[in-house]
Amino acid sequence: MLATLACIGALLRGSAVPAPTRVHQQRARVSASASPPVRDCLVVGSGVSGSVLAHYLHSSGADVLLTEARDVVGGNIISRTDGEFTWEEGPNSFQPTPTVMRTAYELGIADDLVFADPSLPPWVYFRGELYALPKNLPGDLINFNLLSWPGKIRAGLGAVGLLLQPPPEKEENIREFVTRHLGEETFLRIIDPFVSGVYAGDPNKLSMRAALKKIFRLQTLGFNGALVPGALVRFEEIAQEKKDNPPAPEWPTYKAGELGSFRKGLQTMPNAVAAELGDERVALGHKLRAVSRESDGTYTATFQTANGERVVRAKTVVSTAPAHAIADVLAEVVPEAKRLHDIYYPPVAAVTVAYPKEDFKNPDLPGFGSLNPRTEGVRTLGTIWSSSLFPGRAPPGYNLLLNYIGGSRDPQIAELTTEEIIAEVHKGCQQVLLKPNAPQPKVLGCRVWPTAIPQYEFGHLELLEELEQGEARAPGFYLGGNYRTGVAFGDCVQFGFDQAERVKAYLEETAASAGVAGAIVAPAATSP
Ligand SMILES: Cc1cc2nc3c(=O)[nH]c(=O)nc-3n(C[C@H](O)[C@H](O)[C@H](O)COP(=O)(O)OP(=O)(O)OC[C@H]3O[C@@H](n4cnc5c(N)ncnc54)[C@H](O)[C@@H]3O)c2cc1C
């Protein structure tokens, strides 16, 4: 079974390299005459999805405007530095993919990449002890005591297809799927905390085929519906995909199992996009309030800004704003977008604290973090050992910890005061990591995300199908972001790349049918 987990990790990391395509700026320019000018693409939301999309459009010659309701780019990526501490207040790291590496290279931030030592394991807190998840298989399994021997045997047999019940007629949630394949013990002690760590979600409500679709698919690949045979087939597929689309030699390289970030944190990437686009193509403090489709197929968007309303016209519009924030506005063009209100985003607090090393039971913290199963009475979902993960995150003598607390099964977190949240986090650190009587921490950040991560619950895929049908009736208008293409940083970067290709193809197509030479209007100096 743990081999399965290792396979699963590698599968989640592995992805095909998209075929590079570019539309170069040498194309004939089409002058923008009307006022306001008609942009090639209006991108709504400057999180990683919107930023990366804007980069790929801009670098291929499109006239793009990246708009953002807040006064900074990055969405829920917020990286902070104060003195010798550097910390994250949203996501903490990414699993490298060829597209993430390519994007870093193109933005000139490849030298800022940092990677965690892949041998650092995640730990699970269980019955008062921390257990490292095995990294070296099968050797580490002998001493892996988080699972009982019956639990290990059940998981192992299920993973290869013995003891495996056939799938039920109805859709399975994550708990049902994992329990059927690997047994209840593996679910409770490993997968449940993992799901809390990734989604801050409830495995009883998350749809397996929507939330963990790469793992769900494994059962369809092997010869007997089991995960290990499916994983072996998938590895072959990945190897073939890599062969067909090898990464360019100039892109940064990474090792399997590494987690990545940038020296000064993840916000380096959206910041680099904003610097590349320049002030004239990034409009901060612009909140989309209304959008309509004109008879000529272009779109008119109205933004609320500090200086009043601003109208922007564009041939294409891509929304990357969170579902709940944008449903009503998008519904003016795609009525099905009203359904976006049905996607649940639970609250999560990200709390970064530092303690002197001598206050830890193990001052070295040899891992990338610890997960707390919901059975163990620790309110914190998981703790990233930030100073063990990446260099330069804390001064010598301190360990820096990023704690996530709240989620679908603890939405009450949003009702606590900052002091109460910090007290809960400190209590959790005392239970899991610290010596008794460790002093209060140095608190670097406590940010509550009232609507943190979209939950891919039952019905999610059907909802996305409805959106797709609605989109088809509004050519050039796209609904995107992490509720659609996956919540991981790497998924959002991949969305940015793929969506740029879709927008470019649409612009090419419409220009061709209108008989215009050159599809993409080269970037022109236009005021924000
Ligand atoms: C606490 C937390 C921890 C996480 N940890 C990890 C992790 O460690 N690794 C990982 O891979 N993933 C992690 N994730 C998930 C990942 O960070 C997100 O899925 C990803 O950053 C989402 O990017 P996005 O661009 O799709 O959306 P967002 O970041 O939400 O960006 C959308 C943007 O749209 C803007 N907007 C909203 N309404 C409007 C409007 N009307 N007009 C204009 N703009 C608007 C918003 O202000 C926002 O800037 C985490 C997420 C959270 C919340």
TrEMBL record:
Question: What Gene3D superfamilies does its record include?
Answer: FAD/NAD(P)-binding domain (3.50.50.60), protoporphyrinogen ix oxidase, domain 3 (1.10.3110.10), Protoporphyrinogen oxidase, mitochondrial, domain 2 (3.90.660.20)
The entry's cellular-component GO terms read:
chloroplast; mitochondrial inner membrane
List, separated by semicolons, the cofactors it needs: FAD
**Main enzyme class:** oxidoreductase
Flavoprotein is among the record's keywords? yes
Annotated ranges, domain Amine oxidase: 52-503
Decide whether keyword Chloroplast is in the record: yes
> Mind listing the GO molecular function terms for this protein?
oxygen-dependent protoporphyrinogen oxidase activity
Catalytic reactions on record: protoporphyrinogen IX + 3 O2 = protoporphyrin IX + 3 H2O2
Known EC number(s)? 1.3.3.4
Checking InterPro entries in the record gives: Amino_oxidase, FAD/NAD-bd_sf, Protoporphyrinogen_oxidase, Zeta_carotene_desat/Oxidored
Give the UniProt subcellular location, in the record's own words: Mitochondrion inner membrane; Plastid, Chloroplast
Instruction: Tell me where the transmembrane regions lie.
Output: none
The pathway it acts in is: Porphyrin-containing compound metabolism; protoporphyrin-IX biosynthesis; protoporphyrin-IX from protoporphyrinogen-IX: step 1/1
Q: Name one GO biological process term.
A: protoporphyrinogen IX biosynthetic process
Its job: Catalyzes the 6-electron oxidation of protoporphyrinogen-IX to form protoporphyrin-IX.
Family membership, please give it. Belongs to the protoporphyrinogen/coproporphyrinogen oxidase family. Protoporphyrinogen oxidase subfamily.
Please report the name of this protein according to its UniProt entry: Protoporphyrinogen oxidase
Which species is the source of this protein? Coccolithus braarudii
